Amino acid sequence: GPRRESHPCNAGVMSVITAHAAAAAYICQFCALAEVLENLAFLANASNLVTYLMKSMHYSPAQSATTVTNFMGTAFLLGLFGGFLSDAVCTTYAVYLISAFVEFMGLVVLTIQARSPSLMPPECTKAAGALPCEPVSGGKKAMLFVGLYLTALGIGGIKGSLPSHGAEQFDEHTPRGRKGRSTFFNYYVFCLSCGALIAVTFAVWVEDNKGWQWGFGISTIAILLSIPVFAAGSKFYRSKVPTGSPLVTIGKVLLAAASARRGGTQSASNGAVIDRAPSPTGSTDMKEYCKPGSTCAADEVTEPSQELSGLNRAVQCQPRHRTLACTVQEVEDVKIVLMVLPIFLSTIMLNCCLAQLSTFSVEQAATMNTHVGGLKVPPASLPVFPVTFIILLAPIYDHIIVPFARRVTGTEMGITHLQRIGTGLVLSIVAMAVAAVVEVKRKNVATDAGMMDSTAPLPITFFWIAFQYLFLGSADLFTLAGLLEFFFSEAPPRMRSLATSLSWASLALGYYLSSVLVTVVNSATGRGGHRAWLEGASLNHYHLERFYWLMCVLSALNYVFFLVLAIRYKYRNAGVIKG
């Protein structure tokens, strides 16, 4: 059915386009500040969690890395659950508040455990002759994982609801509203980076120097503060009313198309066929699919589009059961979902590259000179590079690059969603090539200095790593903001939160793919008595540059796959009627 919206403000004021756009921008400030606090709470722990598990919970490096990967992957995948709830059960407003409270409870559990020696494993030393350190177990381990996965559940709910909640505040039926929505997604990523910057600097310093109970405490306070900040805009928000499970609609259309009687009764046709265009303009409202001046219901006057024409049987043929009767809108909704899924799959490889920022790139920098003047930069603070680049680039992109592109192209968007995503994919290819070159230089320095087996810092500054962080950070800005806006604007209104959550699912699958790729590469290169590329006494003995070149080639192949999809893709929200 049509989207229903509630708004407590005066309807006359909201009918004025300029006032509406200004009000939406003001309202989204509450969402933006809440996201700064939420991402601070999340990354203050995630960026340094490996250290906590190794030093305080006595996990091995491999166990710690696996636990952190599983935690972060689960948190992002649960974004799909948060998106589903926002579309099918609650409003995005309610899902955010519930999820923030769940995350708060998880962080309270972790804070209490970190403050209480009786809830931690016994302290131990690694001196010669001392007993081996016993990793956390039993009830203490259960408490740790309850805290972690309550936190992950809350994070998933917030990631699945907050982006679409902010975007819903803009009027997509006006150019000003659509431009405002695009700016919102750009600054949403900007706010993610602001929270991350505080997390990897101030919060990490507190954790390393004052204790983990203070680190968890900062996260707990941050997520608690986000609740009243978000709720402060309550009287201004407008929210989409949930219309039931989108999965039911998808299942019904697929089943109806598969089971429709061949040669059955065909529906009457008036010759009006939905068409699509190669660039996004207009809204996703089904009224856009009616002929100009028509007052008839869209479902009564149109035929489905010719893309994925096999699904058209769900509406053109007599269904076997009345419960499987479908409308043109439902068929088109399902087509859109199926057409954006390949785009989603093509972004997983980029997120696999981004996963290197928290793994091998950190290990590279840890072998280098990390002093800046008299200050020694901890490895967990190295993500300061990409988040700083995003903070600097986001305003430049929104206020300089996009307006220039609009003037050059003469289009409303200037740069389409898929062009933006494609730019991010190209930057990830460049980043992997740069990472390989920097690794060759790092190893040459180690060889020339006779330090291949030394644990002392190499005589090369860690600022060399900043180059790959620059390109990967830029790729993240282009792709994440582009994906969020692409999924939101293309998805049917009843499925927008779930579709937007695919951006986070891509990030999670990228982390998982990175782990799988490392295992496969070591297995393939370690045969026949050869040493695997990613094994050795130290990082200096790894063939990490070869792994980076492999990532570069895979990313290039992935870009070709994306390019084919992007060229053939037709935007739903540019749909017009051909009579």
Q: What does the secondary structure layout of this molecule look like, with pairings?
A:
Blueprint: E1 5-6, H1 11-14, H2 17-46, H3 49-55, H4 61-88, H5 92-115, H6 138-167, H7 175-209, H8 212-231, E2 239-240, H9 246-259, E3 273-277, H10 298-301, H11 313-316, H12 328-346, H13 348-354, H14 360-366, E4 371-372, E5 375-376, H15 384-409, H16 417-448, H17 466-490, H18 496-500, H19 502-525, H20 544-568, E6 571-578
Antiparallel strand pairs: 1-2, 3-6, 4-5
Structural write-up:
- With 579 residues, the protein is mainly alpha-helical.
- Helices cover 64% and strands 4% of the residues.
- The chain is globular.
- The chain is built from 20 helices and six strands.
- The protein has a two-stranded antiparallel sheet. A two-stranded antiparallel ribbon has the order 3-6. A two-stranded antiparallel ribbon has the order 4-5.
- Its main location: membrane.
- It is a multi-pass membrane protein.
